[in-house]
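Can anyone check this?
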Amino acid sequence: MKKSLLSIAIVAVLLTTSCYHARVETGLQPSSKVVEKTFASSWIYGLVPPNTIKAAMECTEGVAVVETKLSFLNQLVGAITWGIYTPMHITITCASGSGMAAAPAADEQMLVENTATEQEKVAAFEQAVKTSAERNKPVYVYFQ
């Protein structure tokens, strides 16, 4: 009886775990080309990350989206190895087109001279923050 309760408890815990997922978007237009690594080896609960995936050779126009996740199977392998080996699933979506994000509109830009004083630079960033908060969109500060 105790073994069956323990088995049920273990299965219940495994079924109620969620899957970790992180997504980073660069602002570039995604293409249909995807670079995928299903079992990227990380160690000690992910403290030692997997090797770098060199997507530049395959994504000549740049990278649009990077996603990492721990699927149920990845987490199961991690649990079996007591977290020593924790694989993760990495998906890189290449960018399409020129590889450049659309340039911000003129009202989303602030130009600061390279020769500006420290106070002028701080004032420019403060103004950019204020403008960004008012318009609810980013304001880019450029030095020229």
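Reply from J.R.: I decoded it. Residues 106-143 form one domain.
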